[in-house]
Each structure stands twice: as structure tokens, then as C-alpha cells.
Amino acid sequence: MKLAPHLHRIGNDIVAAYLVVTDDGVTVVDAALPGHWKDLVRELEGLGLSPADVKGVVLTHGDSDHIGFAERLRRDHGVPVYVHEADARRARTGEKPKVSTGPMKLGPTLGFFAYAARKRAMPTAYVSEVVEVHDGDVLDLPGAPVIVGMPGHSPGSIAVHVPVADAVFVGDALTTRHVLTGREGMQPAPFTDDPAEALASLDRLAGLQASWVLPGHGAPWKGSPADIATAVRAGAA
């Protein structure tokens, strides 16, 4: 789905990944679930492109519903996979602490896990080799993605700011649709390691210039990053 010039989404409001498309090739932000591979190929073919045109995958963090087809791109097409150093082990092995899921409703929770099953969430395809990134890095990839450290959901959670796409990709730093309750609107994401730290990290988005705020779960949000922290904290309350 084309959202704007240079900006495409695959998946849906349950689980999504994004493509930054430029004349220099494609940067993929997050890799959703393994079964989204066909969605990726279909979206690329619609643009007259193929996986060979993908120059890199940038993961907002190392959780299983964000690394989906990353290893397939790396293994079969030589595409480097970038992740913050603090989440590198998580992306390679799945090692993570057990955290509270928070509120749940039966229907949305079953819907989330059923969708994940259809998209072959299990077994998880961990990423054998990653390129570690750090807060403030500007990657030599299409769109020149800027790494913004956003610890909280996980130690290595990041936002990815891509000025050419007028977008900031926030992963699970927030959600606009809670996968376990179905509640819509700006709010904290479930399965967060350190909720207080995650809320504090939102202030780091305030200085970014973008019209699109793009979470890993929920509808894309059009608005200023300067308003994010206030909106999410209101949603938390």
C-alpha cells in the first residue's frame, strides 16, 4: 500500500512493515512476520522491483513480530540487517525477559494470535548476522535513515527517522491499536520491558520533523512528532 511518495506499508493494523523507496533502491523498516514475505514481493513487483533492490532492513527492535522475513532477505539476497546493539542478541536468539502483557480482551487477543499463526509466526526465523547500530547513526541506505534511541519497550528499541519519506517509524515505542484489547488511538504498546522508560523515551521524538508517525501495530498516524508524548501519555491515563 502506497502511503505517500517514497513510503509504502505491507501487512495491516495488526502487524505492519514499511518500505522506503527511492531511486537508489529500497530500505525496509521492520520485517513483520515470515508469512509477510509474499506481501513484500507483491509490493515490490507492483513497483517494478524485486528483493534484489532492497539494500537494507532496519529493525526497530528484536522481537519476533518485527524480524519476520529479515533472515530470508539476508540469507537469500545478501541484504544486511541493522539493529541496535542492545537488541542484537534478541534478534539473533529471541532471548528476552518475561514481562506483563497488561490488559487483554478475548476477541482481539485471539485475533492477534490467529493472524500470527496464518503469517507463520512459529517457528521464529532469527537473524543469524546483524549490523549493530547506535543512537544518532545515519545509515548509508536509501533515504539515509537516522537512528533515534528509544529504550523502554526493549533496551535496544529505536525510532527510524527518514526525512525524504517525511516519516518516523516507531516500532513498539507506541501503538495506535492495542493488539490484545483492540483499543484504538495513541497509547503504550503491550509486552514492554520497562513501561516508565518507554514513556520517557517518547520525549526524544519531539524535535523530529515528519508528517507520518508509523507504528508496528495500528494505523499510521498523521501528525507532528512534537505531539506524540502528550498523546501517548493521555492514552495511558
TrEMBL record:
One Pfam family cited in the UniProt record for this chain: Lactamase_B
Gene3D superfamilies, sorted: Ribonuclease Z/Hydroxyacylglutathione hydrolase-like (3.60.15.10)
Bilayer-crossing regions: none
All copies of domain Metallo-beta-lactamase, residue ranges: 14-217
Record protein name field: MBL fold metallo-hydrolase
